[in-house]
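Annual report, structural modelling task.

Input specification for the aspartic acid complex:
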Amino acid sequence: MANNEPKKGGILRAYLNFNVLYKILIGLVIGAVAGIILAATGVTALPKWISMFGTIFTRLLKMIIIPMIVGSLVVGASSVSPANVGKVGIRVVIIYLITSACGVIIGLVMGNIFQPHAELAAVTELAANAAGKMPSDQTVWDIIANIIPTSVLTSLVNETVLQVIFFSLVFGLCLSFMKVSEDERIRTISTTMYNIFDCLAEVMMRIVSGIMQYAPIGVAVLICEVFAKNGAKVAGALLTVTIACFLGYAIHIIGVYGGLLAIFRIKIGAFFKEARTPFITAFVTRSSNGTLPTTFAAAENLGIDKEVYAFSLPLGATINMDGTAIYQGVCAFFLVMSTQGRGLTMGEMGMIVLLATLASIGTAGVPGAGAIMLAMVMSGIGFPIAEKTDLAGAYAMILGIDALLDMGRTALNVTGDLTCTACIAKKLGFVKADSVLK
Ligand code: ASP
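The model returned the following structure:
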């Protein structure tokens, strides 16, 4: 991009050449500080012309999600040799589910330790205006059945992400079988088709790199809005929720991922050197699916065979959500404690572990998905979030800081996908000879 600039465009060139991660971090800090200052001076909303820069960023991310999922998933699934689909697939799914269940348990432990809750009066006050924000009353089981599209074109047009993911996976897997067919005609046409999707995925990766150059500005504005709007509230009950979630995320990284890497004898430093970029990209984009190109690049740099990561990472972006699981545990505790004046029973906690793990299968890795999942899980343990109830008020409070919580949980979700992929690849010998995982 920088090559097209005139020689005199020094500032723009310097900006483009500066490390994108540092730029994003600087944007985060500037936005947060500005938001806190605005909140302190009583300004809770940004002028429209400034908030537009945040909206542009969110719209750019939304723009790429569907074509990127289709491109990367078809290429991913069709890169797996048919002989290895089952071998790799089963192990990957099992490790994903186990780590997600660990996540919910850590979240529940955090909830029990921190006992996050808001005053009932504050919740009731919000409840009156909590109409229209409620997600549908679908159960986990409806969501799982709905993964299968009835019309692929409708799914694409309506951007029903999970249905698009399902079809892309099925399409890609069929292509992987056709590519090794004995019939030359089938081999030729399937390779042509593969090349088309490979090209789509490559184009999308380049668009993502372009968007990442704009990310610092978008992030600064979005964070500024979150802090300006919630500055005062974040200082209270929601601060405890935020601390409990982020501490849970940190414990999960150190305990679960650190433990897994140690068990599979993977050098932790070398791993996190590569995992850093997808971690920050996920933090910013709040989308595991949107982060896929950077997660792919990290897996490649770690020396994992494409045959494994091209399949396991897109799958993980969809079904493996450890950060989201932790968030479910903490927030379920907050919702029950704030509205019922008591903590969770052992039975409710057991049910939350089961439902949150299952619900993660039925939720796509896009911004804000975890909040919808939370409503489903609450409904599953007998606390449906109905309009204008105290529960709706408490839920609205959580939604107020969802952007912040989503950043952390998505970063964890993506790190989890990469950790599990590295462990399974090493265990099954799908790593290159010069891989740092050896
Ligand atoms: N944003 C998360 C992800 O993409 C999902 C969530 O909202 O928890 O992984």
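The pocket of aspartic acid is lined by residues 286-288, 321, 324, 365-370, 406, 409-410, 413 (CB under 6 Å).
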